Amino acid sequence: MALPQLAENVPRLDIDHVKPIGVEDGVDVSAKIRTWRSYLWDTWDKSPEERRLLFKVDITLVTFGCLGTFIKFLDRANLNTAFVSGMKEDLNLFGNTSYSVASILALVPTNLLLTRTNPKYFIPFLEVGWTICTFGQSQMRSPTQMYVLRALLAVFETGHYSAIMFLCGSWYQKGELARRLAIVNMAAQAGPMFSAYLQAAAYKGLNGVHGLAGWQWLFIIDGVISLGVIVPQLFLLPDIPSRLKPNFMFSAPEIELARDRQPKEGRVRQGAFTLVQVKRWFTTPEIWILWLIAASQNIGYLPNQSMAFWFKAWNKIKKGSYTVPQINNYTTPLYAVTITVTTLMAWASDTIFKGRRWPMLILGATVNFIVCILLATTPVFPKNKAFRWFLYYQTGWGEASNCMFWAWTNEILSGDPATRAFAGAGLQVWSQVFAATIPLAVFQTVDQPAVRSGNFTAAGFWIVQIICASTLAYILHSKQKRGIESFPTAVTAGPVSAEDSLENVHGPDKKVDVKSRVLEA
Question: How far is the C-alpha of 389 from the C-alpha of 303, rounded, in Å?
């Protein structure tokens, strides 16, 4: 059954602005109609006005998205890095699920709040909260303190990544989206890479300074880095086009252009959530398939966490095999490989594959299925370490396709901001649910790196991703052949008046005709 798209409730205004490239008859065709220049970078075949608009969005939304994501994943990696660098022994730790549980509980409310609040205040608020918690982690003295701080940290951190994904889906067209999400996703990989080098430096230069261990200094440095990112966002981070008001960054014509670039959602402003929307959240098959893809990927990439434990375990076989700085440094190429593959996949998806997301999901899952099977069936401590070392470096292929299912979610559900936000939260909720339960059985820390059953389990989940991606591609192809859109126009986005929409662009004291003059580029 066809699902209704929300009706437009933000009027077209009497403002001259250029016609966007990549939109024909109210349809986003940006991934299909392009020049050779856009294969290098997508703004190079657009009008000067549209290039200027995208440049502003890139240097604000994407830049702050990268910085915030970098800090978030730096903190997450810092915990793992600190765990193998002395924190486990100092605090007598054996595991922790408080972060995952708190994250699961906070994700949906956080994402839905984003549809009703201004991100330039909401996202910095989240970052202030997690920065305070990060500083607090440097003073942990017991497992209980760590569990409490990690739970609080999860409440603030959990919605940031999906919020950035939601905002990117509100601004970028199909031929642009995967590359922007990939850039943000690279920051998620750069965080752990930087964490390893940072911990190596902290362990060498700061361990014992002022009575603090190297892992404690790691959290202090992390908090200091976080502070520098927060303040500029209060002035520069853009709202979604349907709510954005003219300011020193974006003019009224640019806002109209931004809305026209998103034919399904550019003029849909979310009001109160409706029962129709809530029902749609739980009854749309595409959403459940996307959730399963995300959850499968979150288990499938777990073998890459074994690499640090593998190096540390060699010290039990032959004392002094690897120092703490070496363990931290030797794992970093894993993230470099993932960043490289992420970049290639995103460019290929947006260009060669004309916006199709399923090929890269299947490619990444296939490579990692083979890698996981080899990790499970070959000796954990072979005489020649090179082959297993190489296998660990290849465990990031599936994770590199992460931006594919985020782009797919934004594209399939475009036209309904609340459903898009809810589905984005669900991607992380189900990922966290799987991550908080399945590893307890097959990826226990005490068993690392000899997690043979875990590697087989990860391989099984990569098969699930292949099946889900193929099924979803078939469903969407069948709908397209029958001329059925996921969200043809119908219901409203809740009570938002036309006066509110006009005020959103011109302020409360200015009245304009509800029409728009579109100029050819």
Answer: 12
Q: What is the mean pLDDT of residues 459-484?
A: 93
β-pairing, 27-28 with 23-24?
antiparallel
Residue 147 tokens read as 């569990």
Reported as type and span, the H/E element at residue 499 is: helix 498-506
Contacts of 381 (CB under 8 A, 6+ apart): 313, 314, 317
Over residues 406-429, the mean pLDDT reads 93
Packing angle, helices 98-114 and 143-157, rounded to 10: 20
Nearest one of 412, 436, 437 to 424, comparing CA atoms: 412
Q: Is 122 helix (H, G, I), strand (E, B) or coil?
A: helix
Alpha helices in 378-451 (DSSP H): 386-393, 397-400, 402-412, 417-442
CA-based max dimension of the chain:
79
CB atoms within 10 A of CB 513: 10
- pLDDT over 70 at 222, yes or no: yes
pLDDT digits (tens, 9 = 90+) for 313-370: 998 888 888 887 888 788 889 888 999 999 999 999 999 999 999 999 999 999 999 9
The answer to whether residues 181 and 129 touch, using CB atoms and an 8 Å cutoff, is no
Whole-model pTM: value is 0.85
Q: How many of the other CB atoms lie within 10 Å of CB of 125?
A: 13
pLDDT at residue 138, as a whole number: 79
Sorted by where each starts, the structural domains of the chain and their CATH numbers stand as 39-263 (1.20.1250.20), 271-482 (1.20.1250.20)
The letter for the amino acid at 475 is I
Q: How far apart are CA 402 and CA 431, in angstroms?
A: 12
Residue 483 gets the label, from left (phi > 0), alpha (psi -120 to 50) or beta, of left
Query: Do residues 499 and 11 lie in contact, with contact meaning Cβ atoms separated by under 8 Å?
Result: no
Structure tokens at 72: 């978030």
Q: Is 317 exposed, middle or buried (0-12, 13-18, 19+ CB in 10 A)?
A: exposed
Beta bridge partners of 16: 517
Taking the C-alpha atoms of residue 200 and residue 215, their distance in angstroms, rounded to an integer, is 10
3-class DSSP state for residue 489? strand
The pair phi, psi for residue 323, each rounded to 5°, is -80, 165
pLDDT of residue 84: 60
The mean pLDDT of 124-143, rounded to a whole number, is 84
**Identity of the residue numbered 170:** S
464/92 Cα distance (integer angstroms): 37
> How far is residue 432's CA from residue 257's CA, in Å, rounded to a whole number?
38
Pull the structure tokens for residue 421: 């936000």
* Element spanning 24, H or E: strand 23-24
User: At residue 519, what are phi and psi to the nearest 5 degrees?
Assistant: -100, 140
